[in-house]
Input
Amino acid sequence: MLRYVAAGIDGSPESLAAAHWAAREAARRGTGLRLVHAWEWLPHSAPYVPAGMSQRQWAEEILERASSSVRAAHPELRVIDDLVSEPARDALRTAAGQAEPLVLGSRGLGGLAGFLLGSVSRRVVAGSPGPVVLVRADGSCANEHLPVLDGVSPDEISALPYRDIVLGIDVGSPCDELIEFAFGTALRCGAPLRAMHFFPALPGQARADRLGEQPGPELLAEKEHALVATLRPWCEKFPEVVVTETVAEGRAAGEMVRASAGAALVVVGRRLREGRFGAHVGSVAHAVLHHARCPVAVVPHS
Output
């Protein structure tokens, strides 16, 4: 069975950036790339379809443009064009269940120049059976690497060291799917992995916080020990990955957003559960998705 990374295409600059990110990831994984464009026939003329073209012809044109751009940049990559006549949410969820991973473009910018997700992206991320990566329109290859030095040409950017892969971990309930995705990504990119755990202040620490004191050394040591113990088997499995552990008091969502400013990718988890009003991504993943300054991978886990 052919393994592939998939990208959702809709004709926007964001989806084209997602397609190129997915192409680079497919090359790193040694897989194919599947470009998915979902369209639905409308009984009336669509204002976005150019005059003289049918709705299907316009859908084919959108997919062909993205495919040509990716093929020109990655001539060695096997690219599959997939035009699907069904609702985008359904087509992309199906693709997410078969891909490794599915990559989508963000729809514009949210607060602090982060992500603004359209309704389709929100539903796909919340209900996907597999990892989904969100990429902004400015998610170029150069942004994944450390700053370009004077005299370095564009075709040499990929040889520069990668920025960190940032992983958010809850040491109270760690999950293998999330950790393995982050370690695997770091290994393929040759990037450092920054594993981060943040814990809220205990109620009794309110006065100490006002006085500017640090959290109790026993609590901090306990959390640090738990993070090291959680990562130990993965460090043994991926000895090539350089890992840095960070444990601190603070709100996980805000700290992860701040860490994204200098990262190549932020990896967060989403529990596979249905809430009262359907699937959701959780408060930390929601905040990171809307405010991160780099691509974000959302990994479902039990």
